[in-house]
Amino acid sequence: MDESEQIIVQLAETYKKPDEFINILEKLFAVSPNEKGNLFLQVGIVLYKFSYFFLALNSWSHALRYFSRNND
Predict the structure, then answer these.
(1) Would you give the distance in Å from CA 17 to the centre of its chain?
(2) Nearest to 7 by CA among 32, 24, 30
(3) Would you state the pLDDT for residue 29?
(4) 37 close to 66: Cβ distance less than 8 angstroms
(5) CA-CA distance, 38 to 4, in Å (whole number)?
(6) Where are the domains of the chain?
(7) What whole-number distance in Å separates Cα of residue 56 and Cα of residue 43?
(8) Cβ of 72: how many Cβ atoms within 10 Å?
């Protein structure tokens, strides 16, 4: 597990409610709105890999919102 995966898993263990988890990621990762869809897509992949399925689905849903806003 690399460092970014460790951070995501630790956050998933700490913030089990999807809204809290998404909000903390929004604050922690300073990326442009154009890149946030990709960020949440990758976060979802990591969460799925480590069996945080509900948070993974919520991360992917959040990514889709960014993709639709940015017409990606």
Answers:
(1) 13
(2) 24
(3) 87
(4) yes
(5) 15
(6) 3-69
(7) 7
(8) 11
> HSE of 12 in the Cβ direction (CA atoms, 13 Å)?
23
pLDDT over 70 (residue 72): no
- Looking at residue 14, its amino acid is T
How many Cβ atoms from other residues are within 10 Å of residue 49's Cβ?
13
Q: What is the Cα–Cα distance from 43 to 51, expressed in whole angstroms?
A: 12
Q: Which two tokens stand for residue 43?
A: 């976060």
Higher confidence at residue 30 or residue 2? 2
Tokens of 57: 């689905």
Per-residue model confidence as pLDDT tens digits over 13-37: 999 999 999 999 999 988 888 899 9
